[in-house]
Design a protein that fits this description.
Chain lengths: 180, 520
Amino acid sequence: MSVTRREVIGRPAAGLVLVPLSGGLLGWLSPADAAVRGETFRTLTATEAAWLAGLGEAIAPPSRAGGLVRFVDHHITVPAADSLLALRYLDVAPPYANFYRPALAALARRGAPPPAGDPRWTAILGDLAGSGGAGWSGPPAPLFLFAVRLDAIDIAYGTRAGFARLGVEYLPHIEPETDW
Amino acid sequence: MTVDVAIVGGGASGALLAARLAEAGRSVTVFEAGPRREAGDMISSQIWSRRLRWGGPPVATTGANPIGFGFNAGWGTGGAALHHYGTWPRLHPADFTVARDHRRARDWPIGYDDLRPYYDRIQAEVGLSGDAAAETWRPLGAAYPMPPLPPLKQGEVLARAFAAAGIRTAPAPMAINSVEFGGRPACQYDGWCDAGCPIMALANPWALYLPRAETAGARILSDTPVTRLLATRAGRIDAVEYRGADGRRAVQAARLVILCGSVVGNPALLLNSASALYPAGVGNDHDQVGRGVMTHGLVQVLGLFPDETEPHRGVVGAHLISHDAYAKTATPGAFGSRQWLIAPSIKPNDIAGLAAARLDLNGAALDAWLRRAVRHAANIIGMCEALPDPANRVELSAETNAWGVRGARLVHRFSDDAKRLYAALRDEGQSVLKGGGATDIWTTPMNSAHLMGGTAMGTDAGASVTDATGRVHGIDNLYIAGPGLFPTAGAVNPTFTVHALALKTSDHLIDQRSDLFGRA
């Protein structure tokens, strides 16, 4: 498919991500679809993405399948004024990648993230609610945990699919064209 | 070309002043730092709504109790009023005379009786829903032009809880149409007020004053931050320097300049305009610019009730209100006013959403709790006064920001009185919900809402920034509008008072300052 400049400008703002398709073509996918296809990320490394996905899932399980990693990866990459992260409310100075990446790197020094449902997640969440645990670096651990918590809950429960999961009517005046 | 009026900021007060002055025949240019917003930008999503919040150069919020600037401020035409909740109580007469009555803080240079006619005119023009008779504490004023919003299920549950506790409530005074008014439709109670109201049932600036301003010929520039005020002689501003949408610096000469930016933006601009004429910053001869910034202390109390409450429906501001303990000395052991905002709608996510109430729950436990909460939760917001403290201030940082000027810092701590008022609200709220039958109750830590002060009006040029009209002391053609003018803040949401003050300033400029424009 051919991708025009207008599309390149407009679609990221609508939350779609540009990914390589078969035959050397490019295409736009929702972050959730992109996650399923396993495409690479714009800013996060695979290790950082794995920790973010695990952390989000430990807080709000539907966030992984909902595309938490794509959401955060996209919105720490775009200009801050276009970002839809709840981090905007917390007066953290952009670039927002400088908030997430050192914290995720500190977690990555523990090794690979535990699998979903592993009891070690309880200890990890406990560490983040305090000092962050041994070797922590980056933003204050409780602030990082709070931000990721808001992100995970956004993706798990703050979209139309999330409302439906809870059995709540969405009732939009203007329906979002995409979740983010 | 010299314009009659340069307005810095396209939010609530800037929109009103632009409309009034353009309709009076003045050439008006509004400089808005953020992008142009339209109804189509008000997407029903907590996630998408974040585009409406501050997106300019970062403001460093610091001090013992930092205020959330990113949450409170707006970004784009309409400003913070684009995502405000439309809760419009009036200040009480005693809010204007705290120093005279209690030897604390400072008085307003005007009294309630001076502002009352402007409150009445604004509510007739904008349209307010409410029940004046039911607000037994309400200051004198005209009855509301629309009947009140219905309490809906959450409000009914909470009204019973407050009644059981012996605390009077009334329908909240809301700048939201309960019936069709002014060509705008009635509210649908879908709970997206903080994402912007595209149907214009809520009186945001695009519902009324910005379209009026454009119709009257005002030029509204977006993506155009003003970076400095320029002066070549004392007592007068010649022009504003701005950064155009293309990033280039330019200058606009103006006969009158009105600062309608945020509580941070206005002082930062005055301080960044320091020159040989104004070495400490424009209007800052007495080190008052930026000082005395205030916020409202806030607690949210949530409970789960046996009844279905449908908390996602309604309006985000409040359906009911109580000022039963508003008097300055009504709270034992603490000084200051407080109010309850009752039954605001609440969605599952976001920083003030249901899930944020339970930081202790994760995974399956959070999921299970949310499934109950979206059907059975009810919530109340306690809001309290914090008197001005000169140490709570806007100041410039050492760094140069993306606009090529020094960035802003906002320093804040809550007073002990404010902390005691918060504690009283928290305890009272828990008691009310428990007595009303809530089975599980949670409270938030002390948060903040609203920004006020920093460019206070007053009679003493040594202890304030502007006079009672909003004119900066010692500068003939420079005015300020907005909540920055508040010498004290009471405990009520500020937007109604912002509109009333801006209307008063517009009358003054139209009726008494034709001299500024070189013609009678």
